[in-house]
Amino acid sequence: MKVSFLDQIESTPRMLIFYYAILVQLTASAISGTGFVLNNGWCYIIGTLVWTVWFVLIFIVLRPETDRRLRRHDAFLKRSAFSIFTGLFILGIAEMIIISQLLPVYLKNARPEAHFTQLMVGLAHVFEYNDGTALVQQAAENLLAGKNPYAHANVVTALLEYNGAYDRVTPLRKGSFAEVFPYPSTIQLQNLWNQVINNPSQPVTELESRICYPSGSFLLPAPFIAAGVKDIRLVYTIFVLAGLCYAIFVIPKRKRLIFVGAAVISLELWNSIAGGETGSLVFSFLLAAWLSMDRKLWLSAIFMGLAVSIKQTAWFFLPFYLILILRHYDIKKVFYVSAAVASIFSLINLPFILADANLWITSIVSPMVDPMFPVGSGIITLVTSGLVNIRSPLIFTILELLIWLAGIVWYFKYSGSYPQTGPILSILPLFFAWRSMWCYFFYVALISLAYVMANETNTLKNDLQIDTKLDINARYS
Q1: pLDDT given at position 270
Q2: Which residue segment(s) compose the domain that 419 sits in?
């Protein structure tokens, strides 16, 4: 009998369902992005609902019981997963051609007021420097020039230098935007930008201009910048590829092809790199920290220490990470790892704390204390769509904290049975936050999938053995 290519691929149903999750993720991102560009309330709400479906699918992927329930549909899931892979692979190639070749020609002759043109302009801006990326590269260059990056941050000069988009900034509810709600329009942002570029050295009240991240965000790219790399997105690409290569190395050979396919069609990951999302850098270290936990704990601690030194979103992962270490090892190892993570964070940030502690603290906590506008793909769309008129982030902050604490308690109790849920539980609270940006979510599922594939045995074989034993017991009882 001739064996097809698909039959030679070893997989489990939940690994294949992950391909469905990627498709849903891209759909959610596209709908949410359309809502943001066009300020369309229905797109906001529909996008949030589709993101909810994505979370449900990820939890289905992470449940070992899924393999037992769906193993009879393995052939169908393989065919459909292959179809999804093929479709998204072609879409990725088409996206590169459209962005690089066709879109510039279209925008030269398009009517600016048309909705489709606005969408295309928004798409083009996605692949340009945002404020965070521009500020991080500026910080790395300031560091190499012997300056304190936190004291010489300027979002206007950074975006001008690196050809960033005027609408990829973080506006604040200050100055001319004090009475604007729920978010400044594109015209308002453009008018402000046209004013500030006349005197770029002047501080801008309406825009976040601080380095809002721990110093690892610019210290790690600094050697590459010093070596002559002009675009920090290339640095992010190097780190992401290194993280994925490590994941492929630790995943058993028979499962690697499934993971490689999932990584290749994770267009959100590659789009985020092309757009310079700073989450791309932290993704690599979180992935390596989770995968090396059962192999080389000291190496895992180093990776986690670097992750929390890059971006605050990694802080949400830390309790779940330590709980899993407690489950796998003992309280002593938790203490040692905690000390290692704290030491690495301190070592990386201490020079800037000593230089100006108040400036460093003010910069790091600015995402939590500065008056930012509500934005994102989570339940905040109830506000941004106009369905609910809430102008204070307090209730969302409380809800975010409660969800996070509930997740920690649940994981402490059930991490022995569901260790792979740690990463997704880490970012679930951000879905309820005042700012629930899509870039907080896209990479976490890939970390969980890698952990499942690297650490769990073939559940299909285990379930078959269990079912056989049950049948034998039933027959002789």
Answers
A1: 87
A2: 8-128+213-469
The one-character DSSP state at 114 is: S
Closest CA to 222 of 316, 127, 351: 351
Cα dihedral sign for 367, 368, 369, 372?
positive
Q: How far apart are CA 239 and CA 243, in angstroms?
A: 6
Tell me, yes or no, whether 188 lies in a domain. Answer: no
Number of domains the chain is built from: 1
- 32-87 pLDDT, tens digit per residue, is 888 887 888 899 999 999 999 999 999 998 888 888 888 888 889 989 999 999 99
412-426 exposure pattern, b = at least 16 Cβ within 10 A, e = fewer: eeebeebbbbbbbbb
**With contact defined as beta carbons under 8 Å apart, do 143 and 118 qualify?**
no
Q: Residue 475 domain-assigned?
A: no
- Residue where the block lists tokens 């008129």: 389
Closest CA to 437 of 369, 377, 384: 377
Q: CA-CA distance, 282 to 315, in Å (whole number)? A: 11
Q: Could you give the CA distance from residue 242 to residue 253 in angstroms, rounded to a whole number? A: 18
Query: What DSSP string describes 154-191?
Result: -HHHHHHHTT--TTSS-BBSSGGGTT--S---HHHHHH
pTM listed for this prediction: 0.88
Q: How far from each other are the two terminal CA atoms of the chain, in whole angstroms?
A: 39
**Angle of the 318-328 helix axis to the 297-308 helix axis, nearest 10:** 170
